């Protein structure tokens, strides 16, 4: 059975909203995890560096599905959750890309018979030398609402594109 695009959008939006409302407080420090990235060549002039940094950031934002970015976000979020929850064991993690440089990572933790999930936002930053690194923070209610709105806009845009691409085509 094929769902109408508007129903698909509604279901996807509800799933994202549900994921974002599962907020866990209590984390306050950041986590830095570096990922391997190309660095500017020594022959680059200092005037070129701001443009290289801007271009690298644009590539990261547009590359939602790069496994290196996802791995960096997951690793950083797991380390952050472990530092914030000493003694707890990491059972797993789930990452949702908002853009290539912003991920929601839910870390599944256990301690004896206790279980909890910690929602962490992983941000990809660039240094003044165009080196990438990750920092994490707990998901706050305000950031959750902002990300939910961003996700809904993204889904609406995809839905409009889908509807345009199927206009005038055969109905199913």
Q: What attributes characterize this protein structure?
A:
172 residues, alpha+beta, 2 domains, five-stranded antiparallel sheet, 25% strand
Provide structural commentary.
It is a single chain. This protein has helices at residues 5-21, 48-62, 67-84, 141-166, and strands at 33-34, 89-99, 102-111, 114-126, 132-138. The longest helix has 26 residues, at 141-166. It has a 5-stranded antiparallel β-sheet with strand order 1-5-4-3-2. It has 172 residues and is of the alpha+beta class. The protein folds into 2 domains: 1-23 and 140-164; 26-139, no CATH class.
Task: Give a quick summary of the entry.
This protein has helices at residues 5-21, 48-62, 67-84, 141-166, and strands at 33-34, 89-99, 102-111, 114-126, 132-138. With 172 residues, it is an alpha+beta fold. Helix 1 packs antiparallel against helix 4 (141-166).
Q: What's the rounded overall pLDDT mean? A: 73
Helical residues, percent: 40-55%
DSSP summary: helix tally: 4
Tally of DSSP β-strands: 5
- Measured by DSSP, the beta-strand proportion falls in 25-35%
* C-alpha termini separation: 10 Å
Order of helices and strands: HEHHEEEEH
Principal-axis shape: flat
Largest sheet, order of strands side by side?
A: 1-5-4-3-2
Structural class: alpha+beta
Overall tally of structural domains: 2
Layout of helices and strands, plus pairs?
Blueprint: H1 5-21, E1 33-34, H2 48-62, H3 67-84, E2 89-99, E3 102-111, E4 114-126, E5 132-138, H4 141-166
Antiparallel strand pairs: 1-5, 2-3, 3-4, 4-5
Helix pairs in contact: 1-4
